[in-house]
Amino acid sequence: DQQVKQNSPSLSVQEGRISILNCDYTNSMFDYFLWYKKYPAEGPTFLISISSIKDKNEDGRFTVFLNKSAKHLSLHIVPSQPGDSAVYFCAATREGGATNKLIFGTGTLLAVQP
Amino acid sequence: ETGVTQTPRHLVMGMTNKKSLKCEQHLGHNAMYWYKQSAKKPLELMFVYNFKEQTENNSVPSRFSPECPNSSHLFLHLHTLQPEDSALYLCASSPGTGNYGYTFGSGTRLTVV
Predict the structure, then answer these.
(1) How crowded is the C-beta side of B15, counted as CA atoms within 13 Å?
(2) Contact B45/A101, CB-based, under 8 Å?
């Protein structure tokens, strides 16, 4: 049972345009969501996060939107740059316990065309 | 340098071999994790350690044996693996409590022949 789903395995966008990556989750107990970016031969790096008490969080070119009723979040990158080409993983967790266990999606490969 | 170092970066081993993966962090984090990344699958959580104690084993076969001698070091001992165990094995650490993201290492690309 996959609790975090990224239904688009890949996305291609022109440089300067908006990239929108989507993520759905099934567990209503999740209350914190993160996006990670991964280049080949490297580990994932943290990009941006959002708590369930918010519906939007912005950091420079990156904005994450959360729709709790739809159990859906999205990552917007504006403007997209060729260096943004990577695999993007959505992750979710719930507060409580001694450690925060992150549940990841399958990732979306973003290709930004010059 | 991400703060989490994994060695080796690449490993090829036979099904009868015994090998170990090493992970080291100097971020002062209290929790460490092993994840497995196979093609077209989500990152799969394998083990969680908090203050050196294992708090989660996600139904991982016994041919994978973790060891956490202190909060800075984590090992994954491998023996009698199968070709389907070939994957990227990622180590991560986090402060432990609260909602924080992980810091990942670069991973060990394991090939079982």
Answers:
(1) 5
(2) yes
* Chain B interface residues (partner A, CB cutoff 8 A): 2, 4, 6, 31, 35, 40-43, 45, 48, 50-51, 55-56, 90, 92, 94, 96-107
What gap in Å lies between CA A73 and CA B6, rounded to an integer?
31
Question: How far does the CA of residue A28 sit from the closest CA of chain B (Å)?
Answer: 16
Q: Which residues of B touch A93 (CB under 8 A)?
A: 99
The β-bridge partners of B33 are: B48, B92
Facing residues of A57 across strands?
A: A64
Token pair recorded at residue A14: 């022109």
Q: Tell me whether A43 touches chain B (CB under 8 Å).
A: yes
pLDDT 10s digits, B36-79 = 998 878 889 999 998 888 888 888 999 999 999 998 999 999 99
CA dist A35 → A38, A89, B36 (Å): 10, 6, 18
Rounded to a whole number, what is the distance in angstroms from the first to the last CA of chain A? 38
